């Protein structure tokens, strides 16, 4: 996105309705054409298949032109009838051609303002401005489209007016509160070049392409005139190929099977690479005076700014394979959402020495083995192992009744395996409490660590099920804005002590002065 100085871009005066950029209707019209492409394509295919091209094409072409004209007309009217107003206390958006809709969002409810550029708007230098309210989904307000400079200026304006309403800003001189330089120095905390992206993509193995192919097959029946879900079709195909496969000989059959597996791996790897490049191309995380700024995306470019004091917690995760190579992922939990998720990915593929400075910049301390780590209750460990293995042990009963006796060993073996794995993984299920933070870590093959600030937690709840009440352990649920944080299997007395310590931290903090 452009790096123009947003303070030099004119912003609508308070109370004065403004329209989005005029090129918005072109972007919307072209986007809407995609919805017409499939029915038009099917109609053309039918014309060519019946061989009546000359006569029907002349009648079909004006129909297509009328549809395109109506499409552009509707897009223009939608742009003309959409206005936004930046008032003193809220931003108001009005839209609708026949039925009018108006929505106002107070600045104090706006958790964050992000800029997004999908491929087509990006060609025109336009951005979509998203106002995160913490409600998520359709409840968030969107404004499409503005120029990059106008979007950045509006984001800065919203943030300044929101900050002016905060108590800790009101305690300072107004001139100081408004001093947010556009050319603020930015410290790059993390970035990924093409080499890192390629490595990351290889770990993001995915077979999602087959789901896309399956979706495309839904249209094959109407276009190709075949019944894809007809079992006789596939049985006939298998029978026709059976003789050919048998004629290859044992050696070629093995080679063909290996080639099929290699092809599957290649497809999965290429799919993972493509998804990673599309999502994380140009990934950069910076620390500015306004907070953390993250930009990423090849076709759809997102620009998100997260104030430091709005980072409620952090989550450190990894994967089954990447963990063996020392790669981890860092997320920030905040009130705003990131692509439908409650956490913002700030370092998707990094080593711990790269992640530790980011954690410190957010005001947290990285997890350390020097902490006073505590394991879950031994009774919880035993109960979990029995429940985990008991499910497979129960399966042995119907297997013993309806299958030959040796098959009983399968569910019994699985029961023993999962029970043993649960017992072994118990030593990795632990938690710790420091003077300012609470830590929770669990997972054997792909460990996950959550860290929350004690003063930013909203509530603490102790939960006990019927088994836990009898056995004397509990689950501690921590009220975390924008996310979830629970520690299970705590001895009851320890859960009570943790609750008391966290509640004391919350009560001792003056939240009207919580900022950063």
Outline the secondary-structure elements.
Elements (H helix, E strand, L loop, with lengths): L23 H27 L2 H28 L2 E4 L3 E6 L5 E6 L5 E6 L1 H5 L2 E7 L8 E7 H18 L1 H4 L3 H5 L8 E5 L2 H10 L4 H10 L2 H5 L6 H16 L2 H32 L3 E5 L2 E6 L4 E6 L6 E5 L10 E11 L2 E10 L1 H10 L12 E2 L2 H25 L6 H17 L4 E4 L3 E6 L5 E6 L6 E4 L2 H6 L1 E8 L2 E9 H17 L8
Antiparallel strand pairs: 1-2, 2-3, 4-5, 4-10, 5-6, 7-8, 8-9, 9-10, 11-12, 11-17, 12-13, 14-15, 15-16, 16-17, 18-19, 19-20
Helix pairs in contact: 1-2, 7-11, 13-14
Keywords: Membrane, Transmembrane, Transmembrane helix
Organism: Altererythrobacter litoralis
InterPro entries: UCP026631 (IPR014529), YdbS-like_PH (IPR005182)
Distance between the termini: 26 Å
Strand order of the largest sheet: 6-5-4-10-9-8-7
User: Rounded to an integer, what's the Rg over CA atoms?
Assistant: 29 Å
The major beta sheet can be summarized as: 7 strands, antiparallel
Summed up, the helix count is 16
Q: Which whole number gives the mean pLDDT? A: 80
Helix and strand composition category: alpha+beta
The total number of structural domains is 4
Q: What is the beta-strand fraction?
A: 15-25%
**Helix-residue proportion:** 40-55%
Envelope shape: globular
Q: Residue ranges: pLDDT <50 for 5 or more in a row? A: 6-10, 167-182
């Amino acid at each position: 996105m452009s790096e123009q100085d947003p303070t030099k871009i004119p912003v609508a005066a308070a109370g004065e309705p403004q329209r989005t950029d005029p090129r918005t209707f072109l972007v919307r019209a072209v986007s809407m054409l995609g919805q017409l492409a499939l029915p038009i394509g099917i109609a053309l295919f039918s014309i060519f298949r019946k061989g009546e091209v000359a006569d029907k094409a002349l009648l079909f072409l004006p129909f297509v032109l009328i549809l395109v004209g109506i499409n552009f007309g509707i897009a223009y009217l939608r742009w003309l009838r959409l206005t936004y107003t930046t008032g003193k206390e809220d931003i108001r958006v009005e839209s609708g051609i026949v039925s009018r809709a108006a929505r106002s969002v107070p600045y104090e409810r706006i958790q964050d303002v992000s800029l997004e550029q999908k491929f087509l708007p990006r060609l025109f230098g336009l951005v979509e401005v998203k106002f995160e309210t913490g409600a998520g989904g359709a409840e968030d307000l969107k404004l499409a489209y503005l120029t990059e400079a106008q979007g950045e200026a509006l984001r800065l304006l919203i943030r300044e007016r929101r900050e002016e309403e905060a108590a800790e800003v009101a305690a300072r001189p107004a001139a100081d509160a408004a001093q947010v330089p556009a050319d603020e120095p930015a410290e790059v905390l993390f970035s990924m070049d093409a080499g890192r992206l390629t490595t990351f993509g290889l770990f993001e193995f995915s077979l999602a392409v087959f789901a896309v192919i399956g979706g495309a097959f839904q249209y094959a029946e109407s276009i190709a005139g075949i019944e894809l879900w007809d079992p006789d079709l596939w049985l006939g195909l298998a029978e026709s190929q059976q003789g050919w496969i048998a004629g290859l000989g044992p050696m070629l059959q093995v080679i063909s099977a290996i080639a099929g597996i290699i092809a599957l791996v290649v497809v999965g790897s290429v799919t993972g690479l493509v998804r990673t490049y599309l999502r994380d191309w140009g990934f950069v995380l910076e620390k500015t005076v306004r907070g953390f700024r993250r930009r990423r995306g090849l076709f759809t470019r997102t620009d998100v700014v997260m104030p430091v004091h709005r980072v409620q917690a952090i989550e450190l995760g990894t994967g089954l394979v990447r963990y063996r190579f020392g790669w981890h992922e860092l997320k920030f939990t905040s009130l705003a959402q990131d692509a439908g998720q409650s956490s913002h990915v700030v370092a998707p593929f990094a080593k711990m020495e790269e992640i530790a400075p980011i954690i410190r910049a957010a005001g947290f301390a990285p997890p350390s083995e020097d902490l006073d780590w505590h394991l879950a209750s031994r009774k919880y460990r035993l109960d979990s192992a029995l429940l985990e293995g008991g499910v497979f042990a129960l399966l042995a009963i119907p297997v013993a009744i309806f299958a030959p006796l040796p098959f009983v060993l399968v569910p019994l073996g699985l029961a023993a395996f999962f029970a043993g794995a649960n017992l072994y993984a118990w030593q990795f299920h632990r938690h710790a409490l420091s003077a300012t933070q609470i830590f929770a870590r669990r997972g054997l093959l792909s460990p996950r660590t959550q860290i929350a600030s004690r003063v930013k937690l909203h509530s603490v709840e102790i939960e006990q099920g019927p088994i836990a009440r009898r056995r004397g352990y509990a689950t501690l649920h921590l009220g975390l804005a924008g996310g979830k944080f629970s520690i299970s299997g705590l001895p009851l007395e320890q859960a009570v002590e943790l609750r008391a310590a966290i509640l004391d931290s919350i009560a001792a903090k003056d939240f009207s002065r919580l900022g950063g």
